[in-house]
Amino acid sequence: MLSLTLALAPAAGQAQNGGQLVSPHTGLSGVYTAQTIISDDFHHVLMGHVIVAARDGQTAIALVIQQRRDGVHYLHFDTATAQSIELPFRRRRGNGCTHGHCRDRPIGLIVLSAPLLARLSETGLDAVLSGRSGTIRLNVPAGLFADALRQASGHGLLDIAPNG
What we know:
Structural class: alpha+beta
Helix content: 10-25%
């Protein structure tokens, strides 16, 4: 299921506004939110967007985390925690280049379940990324998750209706 998410993860430039992805050749379909700042650390800015992807009756949901290029250095994290609970974090590698433009470098993603997406659409997510780069706090607004839930429900990807 994780490979399903990675296959649909839009490039940094595509995620700026959010939208829908459909690939009739692979059977993949999905939605993604606009990209937003989820951490504005002293030296580093992290961007995030949520994707919901489906294929062959399986649905994958993830918060995709990217580092805005700043000329300092690349960040490396191994874990994500929220309220002392370890979240399912998967590192991603890459140069962040698409269509001749290089801006955001992949950091990783936090895999979400549909019920957790619904809860985060009301509460948002305060989490910490940790690894050899130290720690960085994330503050992901509830609206980002609510937008993903609204889009996914509207396109028949999830059976959970958004509140409000």
